[in-house]
Amino acid sequence: MPQIKSSREEAVEAIMREFRNSGYDAASLARLSAATGLGKSSLYHYFPNGKEDMAKAAGARAVELVMEAVIEPLSGAGSLKARVQKTAVGLSKFYNGGKASCLVDLFTIGDAETATPGLAKAMAEALLRAFAGVAEEAGQPKKDAKARAERAVIEIEGALVVTRALGSTHPFQRMLARLPTVLLGGKA
Amino acid sequence: MPQIKSSREEAVEAIMREFRNSGYDAASLARLSAATGLGKSSLYHYFPNGKEDMAKAAGARAVELVMEAVIEPLSGAGSLKARVQKTAVGLSKFYNGGKASCLVDLFTIGDAETATPGLAKAMAEALLRAFAGVAEEAGQPKKDAKARAERAVIEIEGALVVTRALGSTHPFQRMLARLPTVLLGGKA
DNA sequence: GTCTATAGGAAGATAGAC
DNA sequence: GTCTATCTTCCTATAGAC
Question: Does any domain span residue A117?
Answer without folding.
Answer: yes
